[in-house]
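Quick start: read one record
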Amino acid sequence: ACLCDSCADTMWTLILLLVLPLACTADLQERVCIGTNGRMSVPSNRDTHYRNLRDRFTNCTYVDGNLELTWLQNDTMDLSFLKYIREVTGYVLISHVNVRQIVLPHLQIIRGRTLFKINARDEEFALMVTMSSAFTLELPALRDVLRGSVGIYNNYNLCHVKTINWEEIITGPNATYVYVYNFSAPERDCPRCHPSCEAGCWGEGPENCQKFSKT
């Protein structure tokens, strides 16, 4: 009986040794998701809209098309489903999002194969953040916007984006960084970057220091 117990223990150990590495690497497997093209259209049901975004992008690493985060106005909404996204082939649009922190910790590349255009500007944008009350937009891994400009338009509370060296990130021809704040109320008094940051940051803490890959 003891021998059988020992055999059983050994068998379970072997099974765990085989299964655990698979479980640990499951999060790293590539998953392509198809992006959206709704621009800033108002959804008929915003809770359903949130669930659709969550279902579409959960465990996604590569967005084929645009990543549009719009009309997420409940500040308790959980956006952690975005955490594995590393690349977006189109544009990233963040509009009317009231979640306190917008975090895409692994987003490295926005290709800008399709761009976002607003009537008031000549530029076409690969990254547009507008009319949102988020306190931080945390993109600590972002190193390349390959085509198109970056626009930060009329966000009530957004901090730290002006500390970022966007020239390090924007590489497309004739692309630029545009910051607009037209509200009568003064901009929020933002906390400083962590002392370990060489220059700019995406938010508080050393994990949000801007990483420089080209200089």
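The chain has two helices and 13 strands.
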